[in-house]
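Meet our chain:
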Amino acid sequence: MNEKTFQIYPNPANQQLTIATEMSGQVDIMGINGVLHKTLKVSEALQNISIADLSKGIYWVRFTSNDQTKIRKLVVN
């Protein structure tokens, strides 16, 4: 899985996050303390998700597909 396989933007974000992926998989959004806040299935292409319910802070966005995992840091304003 290369760097372009899984991208998130904008970052920092406030109301909405776009996930760009070249593979189907699962996305988990976790607080910096490891608490799971959201889980969703994504398919290839762009997907917009609401993050309006997340408090300001730093989160980890984990993408898992075919036993491969990528993690991105997300700042919510």
In short: The mean pLDDT is 93. The chain has one domain: 3-76.
